[in-house]
Amino acid sequence: MNRTCPLLLLTFLCCFFRSTGQQTNPANDGKYNWFTFYWEGNTVAGQHFDKAAILIPVQMNDFKGYNLAQFDLGSNATILYGNTIKNYFGSRDSLLTLMDTTTKQTNGSGTVTYRTNGINITVGKTVLHQVTLLDEYGDDTPKDSLYTATPKLIGTVGADITADKILIIDYPRQRMCLLDTLDSYWTARATFVEARLQNNRIHIPLTVNGQTYWFLFDTGASLFPLSTDQPTWTKLIGPARPTDSLLVDNWGKKTMVYGATDKQDIFLGSRKLTKGKVWYSSFKPWLDLYQQAEVSGTAGNAFFGKDVIVIDFKHHQFGIVQSAK
Question: What is the pLDDT of residues 271-288, one digit of tens each?
């Protein structure tokens, strides 16, 4: 779920880097078509988070501007910001000619959405031929800035990009790739657990105190190792009171979240995950998502920040590579 304000494009610009590594093993072969991702920092309620969101380079149609999007597997669809991209097409009116008006909807924040016809988004070597537009959303891009070296955050890439694909995220080297098939190199190096897939989103089983809870794996939830509802939070944390709170933004809506460090071990298969804070909120759109997806909440990037993970969206498997070196 996108929880970072698109206006906050900024902190990563002075600190991003490309990790190259030594070209000594097959994982560095050109066949994998790795593309770099960048961490965006953000300050929320006076607390600074260096890794608040993952941004990836994208290409829209054949436009040559330097465009980025948040990478958000908590969203089942790729979304573009109307205000930000309209000048690439000349005007909002010209942009709207590429909308399928029969798909017009209004989301929970009051923004009008359309499915598009004629806008392609390319990530690495993978092309999406139909995406969603948030009309009159985001910052305007001045016409004299469309093709400058300044990056523009034009939207969110969702889980539709991974449909029937293998996604590999190399967190230490800040890179990703999408494969059509899982080859022997990664099969031999990753330990997999059976996952679930619903509406393009992957769900992973986390075990606490012998009980299994299903969580949606959400790369858009970088602030929160685990986010859940209050009853589940109480089961995971115990009788403790929250030790932290944050006022966060979700598509223009503000909500309070409350957290405390988990005191019980959390396992993904046989892998004990790094301890972190578990958060809960009474924000209705999140609770509705949990209920619709039949999950206990979302699991973010923080558990896997030192790992390479392999997600097989074809066969519904989630793997962690035994060594990221």
Answer: 999 888 999 999 998 999
